[in-house]
Please model this.
Amino acid sequence: MTLEEEIKAIEDEISKTKYNKATEHHIGRLKAKVAALKETVLKRASSKSGGEGFSVRKSGDASVVLVGFPSVGKSTLLNSLTGAESLVAAYEFTTLDVVPGAMEYKGATIQILDVPGIVKGAASGRGRGKEVLAVVRNADLAVILLDVFQLVHYDVLVQELYDAGIRVNSRPPDVTIVKKPRGGVTVNSTVYLDLDEDTIKMILVENRIHNANVVIRENISIDQLIDAILGNRKYIPAIVVINKIDLADKYTLLNCKEKFPDALLVSADKKVHIDELKEKLYQELGFIRIFLKPQGQPPDLDEPLIVRYGSSVGDICDKLHRDFKNRFRYAQIWGDSAKHKGQRTGIDHVLYDNDILTIILRK
Ligand SMILES: Nc1nc2c(ncn2[C@@H]2O[C@H](COP(=O)(O)OP(=O)(O)OP(=O)(O)O)[C@@H](O)[C@H]2O)c(=O)[nH]1
Ligand SMILES: [Mg+2]
Model:
């Protein structure tokens, strides 16, 4: 049996087994086995395809990747958002490489990445699935692009992302695992857990963790426990955009709104709601504006620095000059993140929108 057949056999058994207290332990073992086998497959594939992946250099203030089936209009959308010229055609797999474009919006430069279409089986290597998914892992935000008549693609896409270790719109499970040289596994939890301690310990042992202190702070599932153990999952935010609305009648549009109430409905080709999409991308990426004030002078209110929400003084230093971090003495802040006007802070201080910042350097 090949690894893939083995995985398939165990997955079939999992789907045939009804989940309840009596089967939890059994399912836990099977899931741990599958996860270990999939890790082996992924490692094998990445060593095989070594060097053949797409090379995209990150640029701009953040990057967004367009994920969707072939021919849903990814390239058309890239062109509408950025003025890039990615090839558009009515046949599938028109785009075979990563095509980057730059979208300027409210002072931010957002890199948009057009990639080949994803199909079912991408995570295990169909199409250029593996390479595409590697690009998705490194993006700050994914746009899941659907054809207005093909909403069922959503589940397939999310499953392919999942199989590639990419979790959309979720947080890492609140679990810490500290390995130790001996003493077995101890499990502590701060909340009620549905999972039995025996099951948890067994899953750890299946993953070759025989000695560790484990603290669990939320009611996790078997899959989340495995995610925590493997520690290589990528958590990225995503929005749903539905394209080709120019072709749809009223009922199709109503159906879209019902199934995806938060989705943005656009026509990439006829340029409908493209400005709304730009605004949404900007909002989702969480940009803030920081005004610089040279020491002893008024702040520059005309040209703010645009950075991501959660940026620190150190991040600003990195943006300004490669030397600034080394020469940093202290910062002064006016604005919402400051306790009082002109508060002195260190390099780790986190800034808020519209803060005014002075950086004092060693000479
Ligand atoms: N009517 C309509 N057609 C569109 C729209 N957007 C894209 N198309 C058409 O859909 C076809 C596929 O568009 P592409 O942009 O090449 O699709 P893609 O997702 O990049 O496809 P691949 O690169 O093959 O994965 C082309 O014929 C486009 O003209 C739209 O908003 N409305
Ligand atoms: Mg394309």
About this structure: The first strand starts at residue 62 and ends at 67. The chain has a mean pLDDT of 92. Residues 49 and 151 are 32 Å apart (CA to CA).
